[in-house]
């Protein structure tokens, strides 16, 4: 059936596995603790929602505006040759930190940090100065985290059918844990603080949109997706653009989004949600939580020593 084929293509893009559950997702059913985020928490709900299909492109657009981040991607990433491999790696990290045990989350973050150790070089400013950068620089770590948190929160607020559990501040505060795992110094812990950090970076004049950025925008606008998925992607891209701050949309040279375009975005998100069904990662995490709860009940039984 066409729906089965569409589902397998979409799963292949998102997880690298066209059928079944990837091994790294199944691993979330194991582990010795409940993880950093409680079931039903802001992080659980935001990251399992279909609005992440909009949040991902939005985060990439935001991150590209920092010349250090863009240089790192341009000089060290194989995003043109293997975009889906890079996407799968990012999704694996997000999912593991969100739904895995603390040990799994820490290990996944350490793996990403090791990959970033070699990401260093120089970029040229608009006035011709050579500026050194490294992926582990505090300013780059902070920018990537801020762009991610802002993108996933704004996409959920705009396109999800329910409020963030505990409020939007809860998401920013909880996801600061992921920032700390990645080495982000003092990540924001409220929406107001997130907005202040974003405005401070914008006002510092660091962000820009040069030829490299415009090349990245063209790639994000038309990624090499499987043929069956290409007709629906423009609606997701325009939905991502709709959630950008006006100043960033102007900087990136992207036009404002019409209401009818967002109607298309919501339609694609609804159909994608029906196609994918229930997210696998939270279900695997619940298996781990149930096993831990059963173990605790057993240890509390009379005559059973811990």
In short:
The chain has helices at residues 2-15, 23-26, 42-48, 52-64, 67-76, 83-99, 102-116, 138-159, 168-181, 191-203, 211-221, 233-242, 246-251, 259-276, 280-300; strands spanning 120-124, 130-134.
Principal-axes geometry comes out as: globular
Main beta-sheet annotation: 2 strands, antiparallel
Integer count of domains: 1
**Amount of beta strand:** under 5%
Alpha-carbon Rg, integer: 20 Å
Identify low-pLDDT runs. none
On the 0-100 scale, what is the average pLDDT? 93
Order of helices and strands: HHHHHHHEEHHHHHHHH
Distance between the termini: 52 Å
Strand arrangement within the widest β-sheet reads 1-2
Structural class: mainly alpha
How many helix segments?
15
Q: Tell me the number of strands.
A: 2
Helix content: 55-70%
């Amino acid at each position: 059936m066409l729906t089965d084929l569409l589902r397998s293509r979409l799963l292949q893009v998102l997880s690298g596995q066209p059928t079944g559950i990837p091994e790294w997702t199944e691993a979330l059913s194991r582990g010795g603790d409940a993880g950093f985020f409680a079931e039903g928490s802001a992080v659980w709900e935001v990251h399992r929602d279909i609005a992440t299909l909009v949040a991902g492109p939005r985060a990439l657009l935001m991150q590209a505006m920092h010349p250090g981040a863009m240089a790192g991607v341009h000089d060290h990433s194989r995003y043109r040759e293997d975009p889906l491999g890079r996407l799968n790696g990012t999704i694996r990290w997000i999912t593991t930190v969100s739904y895995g045990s603390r040990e799994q989350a820490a290990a996944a973050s350490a793996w990403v940090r090791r990959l970033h150790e070699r990401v260093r070089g120089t970029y040229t400013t608009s006035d011709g100065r050579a500026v050194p950068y490294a992926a582990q620089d505090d300013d780059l770590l902070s920018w990537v985290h801020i762009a991610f948190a802002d993108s996933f929160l704004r996409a959920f607020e705009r396109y999800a059918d329910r409020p963030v559990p505990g409020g939007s501040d809860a998401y920013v505060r909880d996801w600061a844990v992921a920032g700390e795992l990645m080495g982000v110094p003092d990540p924001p812990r409220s929406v107001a603080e997130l907005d202040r950090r974003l405005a401070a970076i914008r006002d510092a004049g660091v962000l820009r949109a040069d030829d490299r950025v415009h090349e990245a925008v063209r790639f994000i606008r038309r990624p090499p997706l499987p043929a069956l998925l290409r007709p629906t992607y423009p609606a997701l891209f325009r939905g991502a653009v709709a959630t950008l701050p006006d100043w960033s949309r102007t900087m990136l040279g992207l036009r404002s989004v019409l209401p009818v375009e967002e109607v298309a975005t919501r339609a694609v998100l609804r159909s994608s949600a029906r196609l994918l069904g229930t997210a696998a990662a939270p279900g695997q995490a619940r298996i781990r939580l149930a096993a831990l709860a059963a173990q605790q009940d057993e240890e509390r039984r009379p005559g059973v020593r811990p």
